Amino acid sequence: MVDNRLVIAVDGPAGAGKSTIAKKVSEILNVEYIDTGAMYRALTLKVIKNGIDSKDVKNIIRIVSSTSIYFKDNHIFLDGTRVDEEIRKNIINNNVSNVAKIKEVREELVRMQQKMAEENNVIMDGRDIGTVVLPNANFKFFVTASVEERARRRHKELLEKGEKNICYEQILSEIKERDRIDSTRKIAPLKKATDAYEIDTTNKSIKQCTDEIVNIIEGR
Ligand code: DC
């Protein structure tokens, strides 16, 4: 366990509501929020912008060590440029799992994440936070929802962002594919830490899930 600090790990599959919930909890408890998925997304954006295929492991490894990714005032910066919106596009959704399964990419990003969590009170969300990045976190949560519910949420989100040519069935099959890659990869696959609380968000509001987490942390 980490002494004198509040270190919270939140893991779970795509579209389960992790980021929304973790952000709300960070505001309630006044701790720093770190979205590690956004970091893998930012690197994927760089890969695509450089015309590199997301399966071209050699060239991706070549750029990772010279890439700067950091958060400032809850915005993410890639090599000094703010990329909050660009990293949420569907082209990133569909390529990020390939980039995130590369061993050297994970080593570098995990190093950055551990450094970010070194001194502050933090809530960090991702896939391997409770198992690999912050195994000594004070609290671990595994946030899930049915795959159909997660696809519905992602579909709505993309429609709201103006990506109109995507149907629900396509999103459902893309999410299943991402789940498959994220949970079966050799390094740090998505899995619930044995000491994590499971929060199923399927039929609950954001507020209900946030309250559940805050109550556990505050020992109520
Ligand atoms: O949570 P998200 O959808 O923004 O994550 C984007 C991708 O990054 C997802 O396919 C899995 C990967 N990821 C990871 O492998 N490890 C993390 N700690 C966070 C995300």
Q: What shape does the CA trace take? A: globular
Q: Could you tell me how far the N terminus lies from the C terminus, measured between alpha carbons in angstroms?
A: 20 Å
Q: Compounds present?
A: 2'-deoxycytidine-5'-monophosphate
Name the poorly predicted regions: none
Describe the 3D structure.
With 220 residues, the protein is an alpha/beta fold. 48% of the residues lie in helices and 15% in strands. The chain is built from ten helices and eight strands. It has helices at residues 18-29, 36-49, 57-64, 90-93, 96-100, 103-116, 129-133, 147-160, 168-184, 206-217; strands at 7-11, 32-35, 69-72, 75-78, 81-82, 122-126, 139-144, 197-200. A five-stranded parallel sheet has the order 2-6-1-7-8. Helix 1 crosses helix 10 (206-217) and helix 8 crosses helix 9. 2'-deoxycytidine-5'-monophosphate binds next to helix 2, helix 5 and helix 9.
Quick synopsis:
The protein is of the alpha/beta class.
List strands and helices in order, with pairings:
Layout: E1 7-11, H1 18-29, E2 32-35, H2 36-49, H3 57-64, E3 69-72, E4 75-78, E5 81-82, H4 90-93, H5 96-100, H6 103-116, E6 122-126, H7 129-133, E7 139-144, H8 147-160, H9 168-184, E8 197-200, H10 206-217
2'-deoxycytidine-5'-monophosphate binds at residues 14, 36-37, 40-41, 96-97, 100, 126-129, 178, 182.
List its salient traits.
single chain, 220 residues, alpha/beta, 10 helices, binds 2'-deoxycytidine-5'-monophosphate
